[in-house]
Each structure stands twice: as structure tokens, then as C-alpha cells.
Amino acid sequence: MLDDLGPTAASNLSTANTDLHHFYVTFYDEVGDRYLNGSQNSTQGYQSFILPWWRQVLWTVLFAGMVVVATVGNLVVIWIVLANKRMRSVTNYFLVNLSVADAMVSTLNVTFNFTYMLNSDWPFGHFYCKFCQFIAVLSISASVFTLMAISIDRYVAIMSPLRPRLGKRATLGIAAAIWAGSSVISSPNLIYFTTDSDVLPDGSARRVCFGEWPDGITTRSNLEYVYNVAFMVLTYFLPIMSMSYTYSRVGLELWGSQSIGECTQRQLDNVKSKRRVVKMMIVVVVIFAVCWLPFHVYFLVTSYYPDITNYAHIQEIYLAIYWLAMSNSMYNPIIYCWMNSKFRRGFKQFFWCCGAFGGGGLSRHRPFGADRLDRSMRSLSPSRKNGTIRISMHSTYNNTLVSSA
């Protein structure tokens, strides 16, 4: 689905003349019930999809901002986890996997596809036509499967707390399986995509990147339709259903169940910590569902009602839908920074090191994990709540303030 040139590839009242050696564009006159071959009207129709310069600038700013935020944010997330041992948990390893996929789609796909959609010309060569579409499906599949892995890991950890947790090797093995499976799903794009020259009646030419499936070119292939439907089911509807179930059960367990007897402070802190992680991941999943829903709806609607692609402003509608879907890659780092204090400290330290913040109040060597006060509080037995312990905690707090001043 990401491979097509949005509405500009199949709309504009155009169809492909596959009997010729080249990939020509033929415009159909609905009023006269005839094709306009070689007429000046076809060139004008093609040119009508070149947006005015000020709208091109507006869309360029929107896409450039999204690419920069997504790339920098996800690279910082990767650095925070890999550079600090306290952050190397199972969930955070999966978040690194998710950030790698999001960074890939923002750097290796979005810029090139946006340029293609904006100019209706593919200047990046035959190999990158294949590779760009392969990366698109690969990264999207890896992202959603990683979200599923996180939801299952949270489900097992909370619903079956006595079961052994995943180790580092098992986590890396699951990540490798995710990328292997995503590569298989994306492989048809690497096989069937190609480039050709589209010669217009006025003598000008443009380069096109399109899928040439065994039973026809893109938008005319039943195999492509089946592939796109399968891709949509595997990477949207089934994952959303699975994650809705797991997080619903986890939510009922964490917020709805009542413990028998009196809980210790350590148990209460553990439940609060799990709730924070689950709330963060629920927000990530909801944002994913909202961002990708219009894209899949657009695909379904245009598949059954292709005349919609003849709408005058369909190109900009598709650009908006495509931007929303791709912008999902920039929201996750923002969510981590907003809802997780450890990631928030990591982001502050990163930008402090880059000179974006002053050094006041932030130590270069301060760990991203729990601070010293939190560690000292957790080291105390939760059942000992007499005045002596409270004085000791207060003393620790004062010492911490003095040492950090």
C-alpha cells in the first residue's frame, strides 16, 4: 500500500497503456466516453497535480519536521537504553527494537516517498525503488510485531508472576524473529517493484516507481490486492485485537482486583510501577491505532469506490493521511519522555551534553535509573515504619541534597 504514488499514480482520470514498451499515460474523457491519446489535455491533466509552490513548501515543512523529530527522538531512546545498564530491561529492549524500526522508516522511506508524491517523479534509481518500498513494509511490520511482543510480555509478567521472565538471549531471539518475519512479509516489494519512463505527449518524461506483479501492474493486479489485504490484516486488525485483549486483562488485574490481607509498601510500589508501564504502552498502542486507521480506511474505500481518486483535492487528502500514518514514528519518544521519569532524565542529559540545556541541576554522571533517595527508601523494610526509620530517611535525603548541591 505504501508503494503506490498515492492518488497520483492511479487517479487523474488516467490508466496505463501496457501494450506499449514504455509506461505511457492515457487520459479518459468521461463525457465523451473516449481516451485522449497524445492530446495536450493529458499534459495539462498531469501538470494539474503539481501543487503551487507555497503548498509544496507547507507540506515540505510538515514532513521535514516529522522526519527530524522521529529520527532524533528514536536515536536518543536507543542511546538511553544501550548506554545505561539500569535501563536494560526486557520491555526497554523491545522499545529499542521499536525505535530502530521507527528510525528506519523516517530516514530511509518517508523522505523519498514524499518527494515522489510531491513531484510525480522518481529520481532515486531502480535499486532504491525496490529498497525503499521493502524498508517501508519491513519497518511497519517490525513496529507492530514489537508492540505485540511487549503486550504479551506484560501480560505474562502480570497475569503469571511466578513464571520465569525472559532473559537477554530470549529477548534478542524474539527481536531477530520479528525482523525475519517482517522481511518475509516485505519481500514481494523487493521482487516486483521496478522503474520505467513515463513519456508525456509534449515530449517531457518522468520516472515512475511502481509494482509490476505477475498478473499486472499496480492497481490492476489481483495478487497485489490480496497482498495488501493480508498485510492490513496482519499488521493492523489482528495486532489491535490482540493488544486490546491483553491490555484489557492486564488493566483489570492491576486496577480492578483487590488483594487479600494487608499489602506491604514494596508490593504497593511494585503495582504502581507496573501500572505506569502499562499506561504508557496503552497510550502507544492507541496512538498507533489512530494514526494508521485513516490510511487503511482510505485503502478499503478506494478499492471498492475507485472514482473517489478523481476528486480534485485527493492528492493533498492522501498527503495528509500519509503524514498522519508516518508521524506515528515520532510520537513514541515523546510519550516515553512524558510518561517515564527515567527516559525524561535521559532526554535531559542527552540535550545537556549537546548544549541545548544549561548544566544547572543536572549531573553529567547521574544514572537514569532510580536516584539515591529512591534506592535508600527501597532498601528499608516496608514493615518497619517507626520514627527511627523516618529520621534515617530524612537524614539520607538531606545528605543527598548536600552532595548534589
Automatic annotation (TrEMBL):
SMART domains: 7TM_GPCR_Srsx. It is found in: Cell membrane. Residues 73-336 form the G-protein coupled receptors family 1 profile domain. It comes from the Eukaryota. SUPFAM superfamilies: Family A G protein-coupled receptor-like. Its main location: membrane. Keywords: Cell membrane, G-protein coupled receptor, Membrane, Receptor, Transducer, Transmembrane, Transmembrane helix. It is a multi-pass membrane protein. InterPro entries: GPCR_Rhodpsn, GPCR_Rhodpsn_7TM, Neurokn_rcpt. The chain crosses the membrane at residues 57-82, 94-114, 134-152, 172-193, 225-247, 282-305, 317-339. Belongs to the G-protein coupled receptor 1 family. This is G-protein coupled receptors family 1 profile domain-containing protein. It comes from Loxostege sticticalis (Beet webworm moth).
